[in-house]
């Protein structure tokens, strides 16, 4: 339309400048433009369009999915644009010329995210106008913690093969919990003979034991502002929740009781240890509801409260983070107090970008300064983790993709060695 108006203006100016004989014709370009515009509007007046979208099931945080969108009727050059909510990332605009499109997106935050409007854009038949209506449609996308490894059966297979399959001897015959009596046969350990019952039965009877079950496993999630830092395009707290749920499922398969404790400036959530898949369903539901906090963590209050709520010796898995030795001082002190009664596993998330920056040769003086400061941060981080290790705390420091595997292996080793 702007180009046509410029052409009409140019013709009018030529008619005016040419002389008195052509001045009456100066208005004809505008009359023609008005007629063309009227015809274009009559030919292209927007018809009522209907937007439909396929409902989505729950989307795992950190994974990709797609929205199937249909607009009827479509236009040859129609494009669409969505206002993406904070927890989803997708393309700014997309082609709707065929009326149907699959829009890929990635879930980056837990929560229920709502799309309110769709902006459509298309040109009129004569290209004089551009229509930009706002179409309302209702779509909610629920982003939940990632339990892909649980659904795949990988964890169940690993735990069952370790505890009840290939390593059956670690479960029966080497534990501390009484299992059953059986006749003593040559080749069995003489220490397993129950002499009192053998005297009563007038034959040698051996006592068979197995590894103790029904241990308490508490997952403690630090949900302070430092856990909002992103690693691999996801906040640390989401990586922690993914690993925590994987370990909770492994513990449920292993016959232990699993509980949850979340805290930031104060204790926020405590679920007492429960057995089986019911406990896992509760943990999944409550972790999905955890908000992204912007407050500093109070480790003193959190660890004191947790110690008071868990009188029985338990395996406590603490997911937390720190910046330097000064900020970690209170955390180390309070975790060490907790370790006097319980078995502690401390989980920290390593940032691969920082590791790569230290190993990369700097190109200028700014790069040298960044490398030195990053190296200092990593050095202080190692000092804190070594101090935790010296206090008898099991430390897992790995990249996000390795945390779940390392943590489940640590849990199985602790269970096999009966350290709880």
TrEMBL record:
Chain ranges of the DUF58 domain: 181-352
Family annotation (InterPro entries): DUF58, vWFA_dom_sf
Signal peptide: none
Pfam families: DUF58
Protein name: DUF58 domain-containing protein
């Amino acid at each position: 339309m702007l180009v046509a108006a410029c052409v009409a203006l140019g013709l009018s100016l030529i008619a005016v400048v040419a002389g008195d004989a052509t001045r009456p014709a100066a208005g004809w370009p505008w009359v023609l433009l008005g007629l063309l515009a009227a015809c274009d509007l009559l030919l292209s007046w927007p018809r009522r369009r209907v937007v439909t979208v396929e409902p989505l099931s729950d989307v795992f945080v950190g994974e990709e999915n797609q929205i199937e969108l249909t607009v009827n009727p479509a236009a040859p050059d129609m494009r669409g644009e969505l206002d993406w909510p904070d927890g989803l990332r997708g393309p700014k605009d997309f082609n709707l010329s065929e009326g149907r499109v699959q829009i890929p997106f990635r879930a980056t935050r837990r929560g229920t995210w709502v799309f309110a409007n769709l902006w459509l854009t298309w040109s009129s038949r004569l290209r004089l106008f551009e229509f930009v209506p706002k179409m309302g449609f209702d779509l909610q996308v629920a982003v939940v913690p990632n339990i892909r490894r649980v659904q795949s059966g990988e964890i169940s297979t690993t735990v069952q093969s370790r505890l009840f399959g290939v390593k059956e001897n670690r479960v029966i015959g080497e534990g501390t919990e009484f299992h059953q009596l059986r006749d003593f046969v040559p080749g069995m350990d003489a220490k397993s003979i129950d002499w009192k019952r053998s005297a009563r039965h007038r034959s040698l009877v051996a006592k068979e034991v197995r590894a103790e079950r029904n241990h308490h496993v508490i997952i403690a999630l630090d949900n302070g502002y430092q856990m909002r830092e992103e690693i691999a395009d996801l906040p640390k707290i989401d990586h922690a929740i993914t690993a925590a749920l994987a370990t909770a499922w492994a513990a449920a398969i292993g016959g232990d009781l699993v509980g949850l404790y979340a805290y930031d400036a104060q204790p926020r959530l405590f679920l007492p240890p429960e057995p089986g898949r019911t406990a896992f369903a509760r943990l999944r539901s409550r972790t999905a509801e955890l908000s992204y906090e912007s407050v500093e963590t109070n480790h003193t209050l959190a660890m004191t409260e947790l110690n008071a709520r868990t009188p029985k010796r338990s395996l406590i898995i603490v997911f937390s983070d720190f910046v330097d030795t000064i900020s970690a001082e209170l955390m180390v002190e309070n975790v060490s107090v907790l370790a006097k009664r319980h078995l502690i596993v401390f989980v920290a998330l390593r940032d691969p970008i920082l590791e790569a920056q230290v190993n990369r040769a700097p190109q200028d003086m700014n790069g040298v300064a960044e490398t030195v400061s990053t190296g200092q941060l990593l050095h202080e981080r190692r000092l804190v983790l070594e101090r935790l290790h010296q206090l008898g705390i099991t430390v897992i420091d790995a990249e996000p993709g390795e945390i779940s595997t390392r943590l489940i292996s640590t849990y199985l080793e602790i269970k096999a060695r009966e350290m709880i």
